[in-house]
Amino acid sequence: MTQLTTMRPRSDRPLQLAAIRLAADGLPVLPLRAGKVPFGNCPACTKNVCGGRPNMKTPGPCVCAYPCHGWAAATTDPDTLNSPAWGQAWGRAAAVAYHPGGAGLTVVDLDNADAITWARKTLPATWAVPTTRGEHWIYQGVMSSANTVRLGVDIKSAMAYARWLGPGTGTAAPLPDAVRALVVKAPAPVRPVTAPVPAGGGVCRHRTPAYLERGIVMAEQQIGAASSGVHTTVYRTFLAVLSAHGRCGCLTEAHTARLFAAAQAKGETSRHCTDAWTNARTRLGV
């Protein structure tokens, strides 16, 4: 606390002052622009050319001095919060956000009255903070973040940020299994491939079963190795597989199920997988 007093944060930046107080209590904080969005990356970090912190499992700024990379910029370091680069951001900030996962917390974002009613019937009472349209229910514990786990309910914990909207009421209860279960999804059904069968009964004359198997394995590995731009990687991989095998009839539902499973393991939804597959087929005309 002596360090905070010595550094004397500017009194004309109330959000900066609030952020420093929260950081002293252990909440990693960051500034938000109007519209509840983080500040954009600085020129040195544009398009994550610096390596990008959001793809890492631990929060914190990269080597630049600006609050880059969204949630990953969240910090409790008073020197960073009072630095000139962050001072410029605080001067234009519209709100303070924090990284729940970095503080060992999970926020259940209840976006409307129906969601609140559901939570009161289903989840244990915990620390509750009113929001513009609903409430944040905050639990002690970390889990994966996910949007729309049910109508009007988002989960904000690891690799996510939540707005600080005040102290609220109550005490954070342990994270219940009922909340963790919200992000566990059953395997999605796979749309079968209906590529045209060429003359010759669909026999792939220039490919062998071993070649196809190697192609599927390589596609699974390529998707699994993606550390950024997962959407783009999935689409391009689907496009490559369909380009090689989409017209000869050798792809089966089992093959597409493996590709969808690899994409979903990287966080893609069933809808994203289906859209990427459909868009790739449309582009190739298969």
Pattern of helices and strands: HHEEHHEEHEEEEEEHHHHH
How much of the sequence is in beta strands? 5-15%
Apparent shape: globular
Mean pLDDT score: 82
**Could you tell me how far the N terminus lies from the C terminus, measured between alpha carbons in angstroms?**
65 Å
The main pleated sheet reads as:
6 strands, mixed
Sum up the structure in keywords.
286 residues, alpha+beta, 6-stranded mixed β-sheet, 4-stranded antiparallel β-sheet, 10 helices, 36% helix, globular, disordered N terminus
Summarize the structure.
This protein has ten helices and ten strands. The protein has 286 residues and is an alpha+beta fold. Helix 7 runs antiparallel to helix 8 and helix 8 crosses helix 10.
Give an overview in words:
- The protein has 286 residues and is of the alpha+beta class.
- Helices cover 36% and strands 14% of the residues.
- It contains 10 helices and 10 strands.
- It has helices at residues 2-7, 14-24, 78-81, 84-92, 113-122, 177-180, 209-224, 230-245, 253-265, 270-284, and strands at 29-33, 37-38, 95-98, 105-110, 127-130, 135-140, 146-150, 153-156, 162-163, 173-174.
- The strands form 2 sheets. Strands 4, 5, 6, 7, 8 and 10 form a 6-stranded mixed beta sheet that branches.
- Strand 7 (146-150) and strand 8 form a beta hairpin.
- It is globular.
How are the elements arranged and paired?
Layout: H1 2-7, H2 14-24, E1 29-33, E2 37-38, H3 78-81, H4 84-92, E3 95-98, E4 105-110, H5 113-122, E5 127-130, E6 135-140, E7 146-150, E8 153-156, E9 162-163, E10 173-174, H6 177-180, H7 209-224, H8 230-245, H9 253-265, H10 270-284
Helix pairs in contact: 7-8, 7-9, 8-10
